[in-house]
Automatic annotation (TrEMBL):
It is a multi-pass membrane protein. Its main location: membrane. It holds the Pfam family Sugar_tr. It comes from Rhinopomastus cyanomelas. GO terms for molecular function: D-glucose transmembrane transporter activity. This is GTR11 protein. Keywords: Membrane, Transmembrane, Transmembrane helix.
């Protein structure tokens, strides 16, 4: 769940705390770029893009989750979800240094793709790897991971942690941490037995 539904929950809550800082960044960037202050409607529109583009990325990721899970397997797809997560974290983390609020929008889009893929594959992978008696319990780890991700996102957004004006780019890039943890640990996990038997026709590997 660390690289699965946790990512989704974390990205849902992580934008709440730095909202005013990011709006200020949009105003400053616009002023430097065009030598005029943007209207409040423009700032609100850009902020709306930053918030809502995550859902569009999530939709795109969800649409391809089924194909990727059959084509490459549950485990490899879970590993692949870390690529857009890391790319999104890098774009958002360096947006302030590059003076580009468009990088935040692009980063949120890639994070959404990662979240949409991970949320679907997490449920498949955990359920198919679980022993029959524990399958229901393992399926509930999705909602647990989402709730935990939301909590961590809110906690990191506190002003005493990363919610300060100078630290909001770091806060927006923290989703790289669960992605890196999964990249380092998931290769030691098994592939889904159901995938090996039904999709790969490899009964020996399944057993």
């Amino acid at each position: 769940g660390i690289g699965g539904a946790f990512q989704y929950g974390m990205q849902l809550s992580i934008t709440n705390s730095p909202a005013e800082y990011i709006k200020s960044f949009i105003r400053e960037t616009w002023l430097k770029r065009y030598s005029s202050s943007p209207s409040e409607e423009t700032v609100t529109l850009m902020w709306s893009f930053i918030v809502s583009i995550y859902s569009i990325g999530g939709l795109l990721g969800s649409l391809f989750a089924g194909y990727f899970s059959v084509r490459f397997g549950r485990k490899k797809t879970m590993l692949f979800t870390n690529s857009p997560a890391l790319l999104g974290a890098a774009l958002m983390g360096f947006s302030w240094l590059c003076g580009s609020f468009e990088m935040i929008i692009a980063g949120r889009l890639f994070s959404g793709v990662s979240g949409g893929l991970a949320l679907n594959i997490h449920l498949l992978y955990a359920g198919e790897c679980a022993p029959r008696k524990l399958r229901g319990l393992f399926a509930t780890t999705v909602s647990t991971a989402i709730a935990l991700g939301k909590f961590v996102g809110f906690a990191l957004g506190l002003r005493e942690v990363l919610g300060a004006d100078a630290l909001w780019p770091v806060l927006m890039a923290t989703n790289a941490i669960p992605a890196l943890i999964q990249l380092l640990t998931l290769p030691f996990f098994p592939e889904s037995p159901r995938y090996l038997l039904i999709d790969k026709k490899d009964k020996e590997a399944c057993v």
